[in-house]
Amino acid sequence: MTPEIIFPNPEEAEDDGLVAVGGNLSTEFLIAAYSQGVFPWFNEGEPVLWWSPNPRMVLFPGEFKCSKSLQQTIRSNKFEVSIDKVFRDVINSCSLVKREGQSGSWITDGMKKAYIELHNQGIAHSIETWQQGKLTGGLYGISLGKAFFGESMFHLVNDASKIALFYLVQLMLRWKFDFIDVQQSTNHLRSLGARDIKREHFLKILRDTLEHPTKKGKWNIDD
User: Which of 82, 111, 113, 157 is in the most buried spot, having the most CB atoms within 10 Å?
Assistant: First the structure.
């Protein structure tokens, strides 16, 4: 019998959120981490670092801000949208995005392998946007209970990742999900309706949402 994986209490961490060092990226470790409000973030060559920052940025589906220009893009039908069609391509594309102030991607080969395995088990999901058969944007994350933990997004065409987020929000509203965890505060996500909440509040709503069963398996946009 596999022993239970328990992380140090995130509420006792400093505000920067470093909770633990070490461990691995096995499915069991990752599910245990997210279930306790902790996520991995580290660079290639470093030990695995586990974080739970204070505050935590969260997007409540009903608070998503859809600008007039984004509404026009949605109505134009310039993009086609799919779910869980090319997860591997999405995470690979996200790993190529250059991050401000960083020399490389935090999405290491080990991270990609770990999340692809979570996808194969029906826990990690991707939303993809297309134009003329070409992948132009998307996002990926994992789902536990009635929460979606967003990991990364990318775009090759303006608004492509925003369209993916819009459709994710529509799914969350339809399926009555509680929140989308976007982890760290950014002005871009704030402009789309995400807001910072105290870590203790985040951990409370996380415990509540995990009382619900997880929607496992391949997701369908028409469900």
Answer: 111
